[in-house]
Amino acid sequence: MKRMSVIVTTFVSFILVALTPAVQASNRESLSIEADYSASVLIFQVGRVSLDAELGQQTYSAQAHVEAAGLAALFTDFEIDSDVSGHRTPAGPQPSRYGHVERTGDKRRVIDVSFEDGQARATATPEFSSWGQPPASDADRTGVVDPMTATLMLSEMVASRGDAPCEGSLPVFDGKQRYNLRLTSRGTEDIRTPAWRGEALVCDAFYEPISGYDSEDWPTPGETRHPLRIWIAPIAEGTAFLPVRLHTRAGFGGVTIELRQLVLR
């Protein structure tokens, strides 16, 4: 279940600001997003994701909730609440604060990350018994973004690079673990979900661990060999891009996440 939570939380980050280009291209002051997604293994639902985001011309903020559902809820009581706020600069999106609360059964941990002077600094309550072997160094945590802000970079890639919209590497720090998301374009594909149908861009995101992992948490080669495949749909006459599906073969089986409902204001 922990592996699935990483997959789902990463996908939430790709949802956060996929619509940011629409805000910049229009005269509207902000765009509010309410989105619901479902995670499944084969035909069995195992998780739910909800997102509320407010995207402005100069700032952004969002809250996301992830929980076990369906078959998985019979075996685990698990949920994550994440939130982020930040601002846009000529150099790109800059987070001000990122945090998440993770609960498994009666265990609860709060992570808070600040980004002063270009370096991420994290606190955990209760404290981790270990910050990894090795822990993320000052150098590792410099010039990074949180998992949710990482998609501002992806969104700009999609909006500005028509021939290869998903190419490059995103440096991410989640409050303990430091990793890169290495992006590769896979062309386009016609898909259908309960909330969207049509031609979507296909992007692969390869998970590359750097530091901050304990020995039992370090991903195996089998887990990192397969990418997160993300289908990103153009909407609003091509001025915005929204992730509508994700699939990965890593972990305990193939996990698919699909858009079920979307409300824009």
Characterise this structure.
A 13-stranded antiparallel beta sheet has the order 7-6-5-4-3-2-1-13-12-11-10-9-8. It starts with a helix and ends with a strand. Helix 1 (2-16) crosses helix 3. It is globular. It has helices spanning 2-16, 20-25, 150-160, 221-225, and strands spanning 30-41, 44-56, 59-68, 78-89, 92-104, 107-114, 121-125, 168-173, 178-193, 196-211, 228-235, 240-248, 255-264. The protein is mainly beta and 265 residues long. It has one domain (2-264).
Beta-strand fraction estimate: over 45%
Cα distance spanning the termini: 34 Å
Give the proportion of residues in helices: 10-25%
**Largest sheet, if any?**
13 strands, antiparallel
Global mean pLDDT: 82
Structural shape: globular
Number of domains: 1
Number of helices: 4
Order of helices and strands: HHEEEEEEEHEEEHEEE
Radius of gyration, in angstroms, nearest whole number: 17 Å
Low-confidence stretches: 16-22
Give me the side-by-side strand order of the main sheet: 7-6-5-4-3-2-1-13-12-11-10-9-8
Number of distinct beta strands: 13
Structural class by SSE content: mainly beta
